[in-house]
Write a structure and sequence with these properties.
The chain is of the alpha+beta class. The chain has four domains: 30-236, Heat Shock Protein 90, CATH 3.30.565; 242-409, Ribosomal Protein S5, domain 2 (2-Layer Sandwich), CATH 3.30.230; 416-552 and 596-647, Rossmann fold (3-Layer(aba) Sandwich), CATH 3.40.50; 554-587, no CATH class. Strands 1, 2, 3, 4, 5, 6, 7, 8 and 9 form a nine-stranded mixed beta sheet that branches. It has a five-stranded mixed beta sheet with strand order 10-11-14-12-13, with helices on both faces. Strand 3 (139-148) and strand 4 (151-158) form a beta hairpin. Helix 8 runs parallel beside helix 10.
Length: 652
């Protein structure tokens, strides 16, 4: 991502009257094209991927209705995306209100669908009825085929508007394969509009991760994903539901009990499915879903789950005497260390917050989930005393460590070492006091720190050099982290507090930039810092405040002309462009090897630098990677290194 300075222009004075002619009425799907972020979150890669999710969610609704068994997703070489299923197919009869076919109504009207009254779908994720129409509005080309009762119907669209009549056709562009079930279903093919989206480059791993989640949450559905651009294919099919999901999340960890604790219960027309498994790590990984939608901000189902977990473990701990009479109760934090859990609910009328559905709001769900989880978990602990003792023992140890961490934190807070009230001496601060203008460079070592301090723009760029490699917090509890000097300095410099006192409103820099050497040690330090931010400052990442600087790898000198090259690919292009001309090539492993003006020109000047913003496309996948690379277990790390060694381009 390239970072550029922007100028804020003053708005012109408003003159004249405010009259009825100033009121705009947007016809059809024009509102979607005018404000796409309201419907898909953004127009960057996340919004682009959201188009596929919306169409796939419609097919998943058919699967949850017990009809669809196969879903195919195909990214074609020309950028078209095709999603098909063997469900019932979108109705093609005349709609009583619009006077048009049901298919055309679904594709061209907001809030039109079969998911409002509860007749066609008992359970659904796409309750707003805007998914297909929004995808249609934001695509330059769309066509839909419906296979029903031995006939095929097709209609085409462009940027949300109909371009052909609904008509029966003799043959399909993509006939269903033999053995895939009844010859019914829907095929939707669309080409995202380059006028709307910043990028049209789909990421295979991001999509595969989402489709894997969907397959775990929808037992018995086969999902095939093909990317023709790279000739990659994955297939997902799971019978174990969220229990298989938790096994996958824990597959590289040492677990306390071999099988996940599994809950699958129907309560008041709602299905509650959950799986719980503890490992010997220090972090928690809890994921919640409602109607197969990942509710990343939780909601009433997750609240009920957490309440049941804490209550049942405290009750069993007292009953088994592992918690003594004088001991304090375990807190929710104590019961979640080392926990991997997935909670999935399916209900008829979910109340999601926003079209992107990040939080479930149904208040009645909390009590139902809490009751179901408490009964099943309590029964498991009674029936498996050996596993129960291991779980309670871990929670008790965590409780004692938490108390030690609280005392350590109180000590450093009293000294003002975590809240930014006493800025560290090694910090070279900037003069501007507006956080949105300021950036903090976290630099490896005093040599690079010296170059950065000399080359920076003192008005808005602050420099914090760190000494050596910081603590690997993936292998350390909180109290050990708080005793690590370099991390305390970093927390203090950011000024936004820590833990339950974290407040991004107090963050002193809205660009926190990791700038390390382009060698193995630099990559290691960068990974250690990313682990720290992911585990303790995830809201900072979610807000888009964390970046990675991209210093050049080479300088090619041809006569008096020097060219900075930032990758091996750029070097290869440069070599080809110069043909037989001889040039001197210098490899820069360390930032300290560059003069202050060189570091400014290549890496710190907002007009020319390249910054990579750190985003979390999948918290689950990120959690697995950090656990694999930075955790206690050696075997998964060795396996990862062996699998990716051929792709490494960093010099030793």
């Amino acid at each position: 991502m390239a970072a550029r300075k922007t100028q804020v222009k003053k708005k012109p004075a408003q003159n004249g009257e405010y009259t009825a002619k100033d009121i705009q009425v947007l016809e059809g799907l024009e509102a979607v094209r005018r404000r796409p972020g309201m419907y898909i979150g953004s127009t960057d890669s996340r919004g682009l991927h959201h188009l596929i999710y919306e169409i796939v969610d419609n097919s998943i609704d058919e699967a949850m209705a017990g009809i669809c068994t196969h879903i195919w997703i195909n990214i074609q070489k020309d950028g078209h995306v095709l999603v098909r299923d063997n469900g019932r197919g979108i109705p093609i009869g005349k709609h009583p209100k619009t006077g048009k076919s049901a298919l055309e109504t679904v594709m061209t009207y907001l809030h039109a669908g079969g998911k409002f009254g509860g007749g066609a779908y008992k359970v659904s994720g796409g309750l707003h009825g805007v998914g297909a129409s929004v995808v249609n509005a934001l695509s330059s080309e769309t066509w839909v085929e419906v296979h029903q009762k031995g006939k095929i119907y097709r209609q085409e669209y462009a940027r949300g508007k109909v371009t052909t009549k609904l008509q029966a056709v003799k043959s399909s562009k993509y006939p269903y394969e033999n053995g895939s079930g009844p010859q019914t279903g829907s095929i939707t093919c669309f080409l995202p509009d380059s006028e709307v989206f910043e990028t049209l480059d789909y990421d295979f791993q991001t999509l595969a991760q989402r489709l894997r989640e969907v397959a775990y949450l929808t037992k018995g559905v086969w999902i095939q994903f093909i990317d023709e651009r790279t000739d990659r294919e994955v297939n997902f099919y799971f019978e174990g539901g969220v229990s298989s999901f938790v096994r996958h999340l824990n597959h590289d960890r040492e677990v306390l009990h071999p099988r996940p604790i599994y809950v699958d219960r129907e309560v008041d027309d709602m299905n509650i499915e959950a799986a719980i498994q503890y490992n010997d790590g220090f972090s928690e990984a809890m994921y919640s879903f409602a109607n197969c939608i990942n509710t990343i901000d939780g909601g009433s189902h997750l609240t009920g789950f957490r309440s049941a977990l804490t209550r049942v473990l405290n009750d069993y701990g007292r009953k088994s005497k592992q918690l003594k009479d004088g001991d304090a109760n375990l807190t929710g934090e104590d019961t979640r260390e080392g926990l991997v859990a997935v909670i999935s609910v399916k209900l008829g009328e979910p109340q999601f917050e926003g079209q992107t559905k990040t939080r479930l709001g149904n208040p009645e769900v909390k009590g139902l989930v809490e009751s179901a989880i408490a009964e099943e978990l309590g029964a498991y602990l009674e029936e498996h005393p050996s596993e129960a003792r291991k779980i309670i023992d871990k929670c008790v140890i965590t409780s004692r460590a938490r108390e030690a961490a609280r005392k350590a934190k109180d000590l450093v807070v009293r000294k003002g070492l975590l809240d930014g009230s006493n800025l560290p001496g090694k910090l070279a601060d900037c003069s501007d006091r507006e956080p949105e203008n300021c950036e903090l460079y976290i630099v490896e070592g005093p040599s690079a720190g010296g170059s950065a301090k000399a080359g920076r723009d003192r008005r808005f760029q602050a420099i914090l050099p760190l000494r050596g490699k910081i603590l690997n917090i993936e292998k350390a509890r909180l109290e050990k982290m708080l005793s690590h000097e370099e991390l305390r300095v970093l927390i203090s410099a950011m000024g936004c507090g820590f833990g339950e006192n974290l407040d991004l409103e107090k963050l002193r820099y809205h660009r926190v930039i990791i700038m390390t050497d382009a060698d193995v040690d630099g990559a290691h330090i960068r990974t250690l810092l990313l682990t720290f931010f992911f585990r303790y400052y995830k809201p900072l990442i979610d807000a888009g405040y964390l970046y990675i600087a991209q210093p050049p790898l080479y300088k090619a000198q041809l006569g008096k002309v020097g060219t900075w090259l930032f990758s091996d690919v750029e070097l290869e292009k440069y070599q080809k462009s110069k043909g037989d001309k001889k040039f001197n090539l210098q490899r820069y492993k360390g930032l300290g090897e560059m003069n202050a003006d060189q570091l400014w020109d290549t890496t710190m000047d907002p007009e020319h630098r390249t910054l990579l913003r750190v985003d979390i496309e999948s918290a689950m996948e990120a959690d697995l990677i950090f656990s694999q690379l930075m955790g206690e277990e050696v075997a998964p790390r060795k396996k990862f290194i062996q699998a990716h060694a051929a792709q490494a381009t960093i010099d030793a």
